[in-house]
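The instructor's notes for this session suggest beginning with a concrete chain rather than abstract definitions. Hand out the sequence below and ask the class to guess, before any prediction is shown, which regions might be ordered.
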Amino acid sequence: MSFSHELVVPEEGLPFKIFLFEGREGNYHREKHWHRSIEIFAVCRGSLRFYLEDRLWDLSEDEFMIVNSNEVHAIDSPDPNETVVLQIPLKMFENYFTGEQFIWFTHEPGKRDERFMALIKELYQVHCEKGCGYDMKLKSIFYNIMYLLVKDYRLTEVDEGFMRKNRNLTRLSSITSYMKDNYAGDLSLEEIARIFGYSPTYLSRMFQKYAGITFKSYLQSIRLGYAVKDLESGRYSVTEAALRNGFSGSKALARAFRKKYGMLPSEYKKKG
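After discussion, reveal the predicted structure:
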């Protein structure tokens, strides 16, 4: 199982990003990942299953989940649903940090906060309608949401363990971003450790302890993801998809592909 770092970019002209969850049609799984931004999942219809670190949460209609910066999470969406996702850059909370670039929110699913849910729904509705002065209305609603977050959900006393893990995942975010930019090249644990000033042994432990995956497995998951896109495009053969994305050849891609998808790349290509 791969744990990937996701880069969240706000919409142009707005201090946030809002959209409908991509698993709204059901039969969807988003593997474990983390990002620097705060993320809110508000279920307006249907249900979602959430994995936060090692805990499982079931969200039903009118319930929401706050995902903290660098909090590893995964999502199961077996059935159709309508879920609004709001992503807020961490820097928006800099006046309320309880540690070095650190803030932590808590919310126990099952507690229905009607006011908070109403604001999320209104924010999405105004965003979709784009009426006269909508940008000012959007920001007004958004800052009301921010107010509730820091007033009602922010933890003012946080365990040092949380902060330590946050710092290490922040460091890993820089490393994984570099890996995503250079995945097709000849990357090695030793080379990445040298670039970022770590010993190979320490960097290997960081991946295993804080991201829950080995360096080799993480790199392979990046390469495999891009190889799948090449195969789906129909423009490349299996061998070309392998060599374009850092695999030594078609056999190496086939081994990784069978392990994750239970079939060969050639079978996947025909199926598509």
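Then share the key points. The first strand starts at residue 4 and ends at 5. The beta strands are 4-5, 17-20, 28-34, 38-45, 48-52, 55-59, 64-67, 73-77, 82-88.
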